Each structure stands twice: as C-alpha cells, then as structure tokens.
UniProtKB/TrEMBL annotation:
PROSITE patterns: CYT_DCMP_DEAMINASES_2. This is tRNA(Arg) A34 adenosine deaminase TadA. CDD domains: nucleoside_deaminase. It holds the Pfam family dCMP_cyt_deam_1. InterPro entries: CMP_dCMP_dom (IPR002125), Cytidine_deaminase-like (IPR016193). Residues 4-120 form the CMP/dCMP-type deaminase domain. It comes from Streptosporangium album. One of its GO terms (molecular function) is catalytic activity.
C-alpha cells in the first residue's frame, strides 16, 4: 500500500522528471527515503551528458552504498517516476536497497514510446521482478502516471 504521506515523494519524482526535461534530458526522477521518512537523496536523468548510464535510480543505488549501512539500505524506499530499468534494478538489488514505489511502469513507458515512434532501446525493458525477484515493488499510480506520460510526449515532440 502506498501511504498518503508517500504521495509527496512520488510528486517530487514527477517534479524532478520535469526538471530533467527543462534541461533537455529525458524526464525521469527519483528520491531515496529512509525508514523514518527522511529524504536522503534525489536525482534526475542526466543521459544528455552522453553517458547513457546516468539514470537517477543508478545514482541513488551508488549513493546508498557509499553513505548507508546495509540495514539502513534494506529499510529504505526508492520512489521513482518510472519503474527501474534492468541496469538500475540490478544496482538496487546488488546494494540491498528495500522497497520501490514507481509512478509509471516499464510496460507503460514502452507503450508510450512505441506510440510516439521512438526506436526500441538497445537494452530490453523488463519488469523489476524479473531482475530482482524478492523485492517489494508497488505501482503504477494512475493519476501521476498520466503526468509522466505528458512529460515523455513533450520530450519526444521537441527532440
Ligand atoms: Zn535505469
């Protein structure tokens, strides 16, 4: 169950995705939250740099490995505007982070991008559970997902 108090983290993810779009990057944003609800770190996509691995979920996984104990990581939640890709899900699993809550699913994203005529990515889209089977994962969040859909529409119509 996604708690009412957690919706603000999800809304922040959508804001971060919008910030990425404003600086010409793909609209993805993520927030790392401790067990007590404290926001520890946040980031948005930075692949416009030319480094296609600069996904926010990957950055947060590495931040958590550098700054949190294994117990703190296991009790933390990563909120994100879009479901983790296989690379980020693997990083999340390897560093032992806890629950993931996403606004829109990878399946939704794949459908949207296909509708927008975007060529298929070089890395296959998979649900998180196919990469990290035992993780607690929640989403999508329909109202907010429509906002994420709109950000992707804007990104691909301007590029
Ligand atoms: Zn990723």
């Amino acid at each position: 169950m996604v708690k009412e108090t957690e919706l603000r983290h999800l809304r922040r993810c959508v804001e971060l995705a919008a910030e990425a779009l404003e600086v010409g990057d793909e609209p993805f944003g993520s927030v790392l939250v401790a067990a007590d609800g404290t926001v520890l770190a946040e980031d948005h996509n930075r692949v416009a740099s030319g480094d296609r691995t600069r996904h926010p979920e990957f950055e947060l996984a590495r931040w958590s490995a550098a700054n949190m104990t294994p117990a703190e990581r296991a009790a933390a939640t990563v909120f994100t505007s879009g479901e983790h890709c296989p690379m980020c899900a693997a990083a999340h699993g390897w560093v032992g982070l806890g629950r993931i809550v996403y606004v829109s699913s990878s399946e939704q994203l794949a459908t949207w991008l296909a509708e927008l005529g975007v060529p298929a990515p070089p890395v296959r889209t998979l649900p998180i559970h196919q990469v990290v089977p035992d993780l607690v994962v929640e989403g999508p969040i329909p109202d907010l997902a429509e906002q994420v859909h709109e950000l992707h529409r804007r990104f691909h119509s301007s590029s």
